């Protein structure tokens, strides 16, 4: 069923008005990056609640040092509020905090929640924490970063549904756009996230599939999702390859670091930089001409869909095994439209939870 995020937000506003007396979602930052909570979690005075009967949702996401996950948090919070649910959201300190993220999930698993939303840092770092959740038949919604299927099966963890971008498709869109802007020729460098990370690998695979045969692709260089590291890596690549025509970055933060290296070399506009995410700073950079394009994903929408999936599951409804969130290439000609619609997509998409 077709339903835009704008219509979801409008419907949410109406639901919020009807349920304001019984709904509260508040944010408490316990450290600048490490922990964000929306109200909920646990019965009154610490007494256990009623398991699946609870209308509380727990969410464990990646670090809020990255604006992508800040926006995801906002989508979870606002959709929960709109649906008359309470949500507790906890975040890792940063993109490498696998242990801390797992500890937050383990603590939440001892409390009363009707559904869990998880966005793991790696494919298996949250699996053990999910085992007691599944043992209680509490539904688990996996968003953004897939839980490793083999690890989940070994721990008897049941993932009710996965909600996220098709990262291969996102990379493919970036590759197709790069081929177009370079007229099918030139040398392009690829800068990925943490070596071995599945999200990074998928985006690079899609880009490579679309670009190889037309463009000369250099070996992938890892920059750990970090802007400064990407700047350093891109500077080295520019020095070693004076004829370099473009860069593909597996996320916007690295793309912005690359754009700085290109600017330092006096080659803005000459060396094309395409990244993935569609964060506000990247949209600004596209509009300014510092980035050629960003392949926008919609973490706000991923968060919204995660909550909608939880609501359906808590109501005993069937949900799809996979829910694909939208992606779109944002180049300078549509950057203004994308910014106006942010954090929602600027195009409609098929939402299986639409009414």
Automatic annotation (TrEMBL):
Pfam families: Peripla_BP_4. SUPFAM superfamilies: Periplasmic binding protein-like I. One of its GO terms (molecular function) is carbohydrate binding. The keyword Lipid metabolism does not apply. It is found in: Cell envelope. Keywords: Signal. Residues 1-38 form the signal peptide. Residues 58-317 form the Periplasmic binding protein domain. It comes from the Bacteria. GO terms for cellular component: cell envelope. PANTHER family: D-ALLOSE-BINDING PERIPLASMIC PROTEIN-RELATED. Belongs to the bacterial solute-binding protein 2 family. This is LacI family transcriptional regulator. It comes from Sediminivirga luteola.
């Amino acid at each position: 069923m077709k339903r835009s995020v704008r219509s979801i937000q409008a419907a949410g506003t109406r639901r919020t008005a009807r349920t304001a007396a019984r709904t509260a979602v508040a944010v408490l930052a316990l450290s600048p990056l490490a922990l964000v909570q929306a109200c909920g979690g646990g019965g009154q005075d610490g007494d256990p609640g009623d398991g699946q009967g609870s209308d509380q949702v727990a969410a464990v996401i990646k670090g809020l040092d990255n604006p992508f996950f800040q926006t995801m948090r906002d989508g979870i919070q606002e959709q929960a509020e709109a649906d008359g649910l309470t949500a507790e959201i906890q975040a890792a300190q940063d993109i490498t905090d696998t242990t801390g993220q797992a500890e937050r999930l383990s603590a939440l698993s001892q409390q009363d929640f009707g559904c869990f939303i998880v966005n793991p840092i790696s494919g298996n770092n949250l699996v053990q924490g999910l085992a007691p959740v599944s043992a209680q038949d509490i539904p688990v919604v996996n968003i953004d970063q897939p839980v490793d299927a083999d690890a989940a099966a070994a721990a008897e963890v049941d993932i009710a549904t996965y909600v996220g971008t098709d990262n291969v498709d996102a990379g493919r869109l970036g590759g197709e756009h790069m081929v177009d802007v370079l007229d099918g020729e030139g040398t392009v460098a690829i800068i990925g996230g943490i070596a071995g990370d599945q999200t990074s690998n998928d985006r690079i695979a899609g880009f490579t599939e679309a670009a190889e045969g037309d463009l000369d692709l250099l070996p992938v260089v890892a920059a750990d999702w970090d802007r400064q590291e990407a700047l350093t890596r891109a500077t080295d690549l520019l020095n070693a390859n004076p004829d370099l025509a473009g860069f593909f970055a597996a996320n916007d933060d690295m793309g912005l670091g690359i754009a700085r290296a290109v600017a330092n070399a006096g080659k803005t506009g000459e060396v094309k930089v395409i990244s993935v995410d569609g964060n506000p700073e990247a949209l600004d950079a596209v509009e300014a001409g510092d980035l050629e394009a960003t392949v926008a994903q919609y973490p706000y929408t991923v968060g919204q869909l995660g909550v909608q999936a939880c609501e359906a599951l808590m109501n005993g409804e069937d949900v799809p095994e996979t829910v694909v969130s939208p992606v779109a290439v944002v180049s300078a000609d549509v950057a203004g439209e994308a910014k106006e619609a942010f954090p929602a997509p600027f195009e409609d998409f098929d939402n299986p939870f639409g009414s």
